[in-house]
Amino acid sequence: MTKTTRKALLGGLAIASASVLLAGCGSAPETSASGDASTSDYLPCMVSDFGGFDDKSFNQLGYDGLMKAGEELEVKPKTVESATETDYASNVQGLVDQGCSTIITVGFALADAAAESAEANPETEYVSIDDIVDIDGDGETDFPNIKPIIFDTAQAAFLAGYLSAGVSQTGVVGTFGGMNFPTVTIFMDGFAQGVTYYNEENAADVQIIGWDSAAQDGSFTGGFEANDGARQIAQGLIDQNADVILPVGGPIYQSAAAAIEDSGKNIALIGADADVYETDPSVGALLLTSILKGIDVGVYDTIVAAGNDEFDATPFIGTLENDGVGIAPFHDWEANVPAELSTKLDELKQSIIDGDITVDSYLAS
Description:
By secondary structure, the chain is α/β, with parallel strands linked by helices. It is 38% helix and 16% strand. A hairpin with a 4-residue loop joins strand 8 and strand 9 (217-218). It is a lipid-anchor. Residues 1-23 form the signal peptide.
């Protein structure tokens, strides 16, 4: 089944909420270690998506969670970075060959490689970040040795969209993504829903550019690198008068930040996955907030449990209710956010948790 077909199938999934809370190059992987000498035979490992472990976003969050767990367990994790999509299968196999006990694949795009490897190695544990690994499209994870850690980021993005509409001075906000994957567009779609809700509640007409909810398509760079293509897309949004921009796709936010700085305009940036104010202080002054995914906590908890022979393949779905997703503090932009708007965001969060507001996504149950 192709990724395009899988993406279409994912759009119709309704996955049951989990009962627990956050409960490279194609040749042989290079080892990345932390802690003292291993005191057990347990060996946790990780394969990145392209973008690398220094993307200051989802790959880095996964890496940080793994290293923290390694310190806790007094083991030395192995990691390998993927440079392109063609590296995925060989990188996973390389970790199998090195005797990894648990292999974490970071990103939707690695699902096929994870499924193939899990089927061939039923005694090895797998953790899939951002995908349930449902290659056959039946709505369930294909193999019992895979634990999905996924996030309904549309809920948090809804809050960021409402916030953005509330602070915009031009009446235009924008977003763009790395690739048209469900784990990217879930941010963009939730963001758009938040803007729409703001307009309905406040008789406003804030426009969102870069994403078309009806078509489920928008502006994409075609990859997850900070490059001139990403910068040009960000510049296009600026040229259309957007004064809040949400880039979704690892380090592509760096290209957006460069475009904002060159414009000389008062434009806010929204981070994705991590609190980018903390992971990349160089763009801190631009950040209104970040849309958060608890990847690091999910990886840490899962690996510590697995290292103690308590691996649980039950899917974890991060939501506002279990703090698996959220929005970061306003940091330097706090003075620009009216107190009543901040209070309203708290109320909206509770309304989403209570079910009074429904945020549509492919993960909504």
